[in-house]
Specification:
The chain is α/β, with parallel strands linked by helices. The protein contains twelve helices and eight strands.
C-alpha cells in the first residue's frame, strides 16, 4: 500500500512536465486530449455509470464472441436483459483485431447488431481494442475448450506476443483501429473507447509503450465524439501510468482491493480533476465485494464496472490463484453475478445493486 501511494504521488508531481512532452508530442496536430471542463461536463450529463465486463456465457474468449460462426445475438439479448434488470447502464466489451482481419465488414456488422441489442436494453457499452492479458498467440477459427477450474483459460491477448512488437503488423493494426473508430465515431450508442487493456501485463512492461503511443495517436487522428481512455492497473509501471493520465479524456483504472485501500487510490486520482471510472473491480475472495465497494464508489461518484456478468466458459468464478482441475465449484465465486439460467449467485448482491441503481 505504501508503494501504491508513493507511486501515485510521483505520477501526480510529474504529470505537468510529462503531459507536454508525452501527450502533445505523440498526438501532434490531431485531436487533443479533452479539457477537464469538457470531460466533467460529459460525465455530468450521465447517470452514475454501473455495469460489468461482458462476454456471453457460451464464449471462451473475444474471438468466440465475435466470429461469424459463433456470434450469438439471441444469447446476448437474453443476458443483456439480465443486466438491464439490475439497473446496469454500461458494459465493457472486448473486440479483437483477428476478427477484423478475417472479415472487416462482417465484424462491423456484428458490432452494429450488438449495439442494437444494447440500445434496446438502455445500455451504452465501452469497447476495448488491445489487451495484454492471458494467452499470447491468438488464432482464428475454432477456439480452445475451457480448461476445467482454470480462470480465463482461453482468453487471448491482442495483438498477442510477439505481435505487439512486430513492425510488419503495425499497418494492419492501424487500419483496424482507425476503421472501427471512424465507422462508429458519431454513434451515440457507444459510451467511450478503452484503447488498451492492462498495457505491459505478462511481463511486457514498458516494451509496449510504442504500441500504446500509436493507438492513442490513431484515435486522436479520428477524433471520435466519444472519449478515449486506457486504464491504470499496475502502480509500478510509472512511465506507462504517466502516459495514460496525460492522454486519457476520462481516467479509468482497475482495483481489486478491499474498500479502504481502494478509496485511498480514488482520493489520489481525484487530484487530476477528471471523472473516474473503475473499469475492473469485485473479486470476492480478495474482499472486493459489491456490499463493501459498490456503495463507496457511488459515494465517490466513480463509475463502477465489475468483472463478469454471467458465469460461463471463461471460468471467472474461479480465482487467479487457485486451479480446481477436477472442475468442482469453488467454495466462493471469484467473479460474476448470474448463473447460466439467469438466477443470481447471491440475491443480496443483486438487491443491493438494484437499490443503488434506484430500482
Amino acid at each position: 500500500m505504501k508503494y501504491i501511494f508513493s507511486s501515485l504521488l510521483f505520477i501526480f508531481t510529474a504529470i505537468t512536465v510529462f503531459s507536454q512532452t508525452i501527450s502533445y508530442k505523440i498526438i501532434d496536430n490531431h485531436g487533443k486530449v479533452w479539457t477537464t471542463e469538457k470531460a466533467n461536463e460529459w460525465y455530468k450529463r450521465r447517470k452514475w455509470l454501473t455495469g460489468a465486463n461482458y462476454i456471453p456465457a457460451n464464449a471462451v474468449n473475444q474471438l468466440e464472441m465475435w466470429q461469424a460462426d459463433t456470434f450469438d445475438p439471441i444469447t446476448i439479448d437474453k443476458e443483456l436483459g439480465w443486466a438491464q434488470s439490475i439497473g446496469f447502464n454500461t458494459l465493457r466489451v472486448f473486440l479483437h483485431s483477428i476478427v477484423y482481419k478475417q472479415d472487416a465488414q462482417g465484424f462491423k456488422n456484428r458490432i452494429h447488431r450488438f449495439l442494437q441489442i444494447a440500445d434496446k436494453h438502455h445500455i451504452q457499452p465501452l469497447f476495448v481494442f488491445f489487451d495484454d492479458c492471458w494467452n499470447r498467440d491468438p488464432q482464428p477459427g475454432k477456439q480452445p475448450e475451457p480448461k476445467p477450474g482454470m480462470h480465463n483459460s482461453g482468453w487471448m491477448q491482442d495483438p498477442g506476443d510477439p505481435g505487439y512488437k512486430d513492425s510488419a503488423r503495425i499497418a494492419e493494426l492501424e487500419m483496424y483501429v482507425r476503421d472501427i473508430l471512424f465507422s462508429f465515431a458519431h454513434d451515440k450508442r457507444i459510451l467511450m473507447w478503452d484503447l488498451y487493456n492492462e498495457p505491459g501485463n505478462q511481463g511486457k512492461n514498458d516494451a509496449v509503450l510504442p504500441l500504446l503511443q500509436k493507438v492513442f495517436y490513431w484515435a486522436r487522428a479520428v477524433n471520435p465524439d466519444q472519449p478515449v481512455t486506457a486504464g491504470l492497473w499496475s502502480w509500478r509501471l510509472e512511465t506507462i501510468n504517466r502516459f495514460l493520465i496525460a492522454n486519457s479524456d476520462i481516467i479509468t483504472y482497475h482495483n481489486y482491493e478491499e474498500p479502504q485501500a481502494h478509496q485511498k487510490v480514488i482520493q489520489i486520482l481525484q487530484s487530476f480533476g477528471r471523472p473516474l471510472i473503475c473499469t475492473e473491480y469485485m473479486a470476492r475472495t480478495h474482499n472486493s465485494r459489491f456490499n463493501n465497494v459498490l456503495p463507496m464508489l457511488k459515494k465517490e461518484n466513480t463509475g463502477a464496472i465489475n468483472w463478469g456478468l454471467v458465469a460461463g466458459k471463461t471460468n471467472t468464478i474461479y480465482s487467479w490463484e487457485e486451479k480446481l482441475s477436477d472442475g468442482r465449484l469453488p467454495a466462493e465465486w471469484f467473479h460474476d453475478i448470474f448463473k447460466k439460467d439467469g438466477t443470481p449467485y447471491r440475491q443480496d448482491e443483486v438487491d443491493l445493486i438494484k437499490q443503488l441503481n434506484g430500482l
